[in-house]
Amino acid sequence: MTEETKTRLQPKKLRSRLKLKTQQKLPLRSLQS
Predict the structure, then answer these.
(1) Which stretches within 1-33 are classed as H helix?
(2) Do residues 16 and 7 touch, judged by C-beta distance below 8 A?
């Protein structure tokens, strides 16, 4: 099972947490996007 599939199967709350973590790691990219 790939990471993408795992993320898809996770509840929305967990996905939101992952998104927040990613944004915190890459704040510049988030702002540009």
Answers:
(1) 3-9, 12-25, 27-32
(2) no
